[in-house]
Amino acid sequence: MGVQYREIDVTRDPVAAGEMVRKSGQQGVPVITVDGQVVVGFDPRRLQALIGQAARKRPSLGLSIADASKMAMKAGGIPIFGAFVGRVASGSPAERAGVRSGDIITEANFRAITNAGDLEKLLETLTAGSHLSLVVTRGDKVLRIQVSL
Prior knowledge:
Structural class: alpha+beta
């Protein structure tokens, strides 16, 4: 999973320019923030360390997922929407909560999940210790599963 970022041209966005000056006390040099930490100038070692720390904070369900619609099409079936669960890691939060290989996640924290990307984006917003409410289709059953990350 890559690092999400937003690049802003502060010459065109005076509000963003003011925010960077307020955060860094600097003007006219690159300012980068990673998880609220300000890096003034381009410091590759510090950036890599902060990115590594941020990645370790992000929780994982312990699932391998794919777009359910693509999986159905490969099998010659009717297109369905959601995140198809391929592998569930042993001892993972998902396994402890009861998620199984073959489940299709259609909702997470009351948001529709139409593909694997939807679930990945939602997970990027969560931190360790968060709770996740999933709706999964398992065969002809629809289940609500609570996961602690």
